């Protein structure tokens, strides 16, 4: 059995089924600047800091647009798409969070999304009250996959990072989590994970419903 004293969650793709919305944000912004961003390329961008991804798209587009203007267009598309669409809560999220609450295990969110936006989206989804802390990408010097954001989330909960489990839908982030000494749990969006790996360094599940069955049984 995996033992942990605090739980840290990525928001988009783990708590909320919002990666499709983010794909639309990036693809529309890129299209506005004359570049067609493929689904495959966007998948490679999941779990990476926004500034790094802007640089990636800029280079793929052969530096054919102004990066600052592209960043502004991303914010515009983000506001329009997320205000007009409600991301669904992923399967098993509420039940798992309720199970952790019953066991007095503190929870936090570590998301690349700006904190103000993250708070609004979590509140809109009815999830905000489950979390002791929410750390946004605008609150750390180094974005994901750097582990700074997870370490800060653990600190805000008052839990030793080594005793925290992190739920991510990005394999590169899970690797970073593991290397930083936290427990990594990979919950890839749209995947069918297996839970036959009981190594504390990394677990893989299809959804938080399966996580709950395994960790809270």
Could you characterize the architecture of this molecule?
Mean pLDDT is 91; it is low at 191-201. The chain has helices at 19-32, 39-45, 50-60, 67-84, 93-102, 115-125, 148-157, 171-179, 208-215; strands spanning 6-9, 16-17, 88-89, 107-110, 133-135, 164-168, 183-186, 202-204. It has 9 helices and 8 strands. Strands 5-4-1-6-7-8 form a 6-stranded parallel beta sheet, with helices on both faces. The protein has a two-stranded antiparallel sheet with strand order 2-3. It is of the alpha/beta class. The chain has 2 domains: 6-17 and 88-215, HAD superfamily/HAD-like (Rossmann fold); 19-84, DNA polymerase, domain 1 (Orthogonal Bundle). The chain is 45% helix and 12% strand.
Short description:
This protein is an alpha/beta fold and 217 residues long. Helix content is 45%, strand content 12%.
Output the keywords.
two-stranded antiparallel sheet, DNA polymerase, domain 1, 217 residues, 6-stranded parallel β-sheet, alpha/beta, globular, Rossmann fold, 45% helix
Question: Which helices and strands occur, and which strands form pairs?
Answer:
Elements: E1 6-9, E2 16-17, H1 19-32, H2 39-45, H3 50-60, H4 67-84, E3 88-89, H5 93-102, E4 107-110, H6 115-125, E5 133-135, H7 148-157, E6 164-168, H8 171-179, E7 183-186, E8 202-204, H9 208-215
Parallel strand pairs: 1-4, 1-6, 4-5, 6-7, 7-8
Antiparallel strand pairs: 2-3
Helix pairs in contact: 1-4, 5-9
């Amino acid at each position: 059995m995996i033992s942990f004293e605090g739980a840290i969650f990525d928001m988009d793709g783990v708590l909320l089924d919002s990666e499709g919305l983010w794909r639309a944000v990036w693809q529309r912004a890129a299209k506005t600047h004359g570049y067609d961003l493929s689904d495959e390329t966007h998948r490679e961008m999941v779990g990476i800091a926004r500034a790094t991804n802007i640089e990636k798209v800029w280079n793929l587009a052969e530096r054919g647009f102004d990066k600052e203007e592209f960043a502004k267009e991303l914010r515009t598309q983000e506001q329009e798409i997320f205000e007009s669409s409600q991301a669904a809560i992923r399967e098993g999220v509420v039940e798992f969070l309720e199970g952790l609450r019953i066991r007095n295990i503190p929870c936090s969110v570590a998301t690349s999304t700006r904190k103000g936006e993250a708070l609004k989206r979590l509140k809109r989804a009815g999830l905000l009250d489950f979390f002791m802390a929410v750390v946004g990408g605008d609150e750390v010097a180094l974005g994901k996959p750097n582990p700074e954001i997870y370490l800060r989330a653990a600190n805000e909960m008052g839990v030793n990072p080594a005793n925290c489990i992190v739920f991510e839908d990005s394999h590169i982030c899970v690797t970073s989590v593991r290397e930083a000494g936290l427990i990594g749990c990979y919950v890839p969006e749209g995947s069918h994970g297996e839970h036959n790996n009981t190594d504390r360094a990394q677990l893989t599940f299809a959804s938080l419903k399966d996580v709950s069955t395994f960790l809270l049984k």
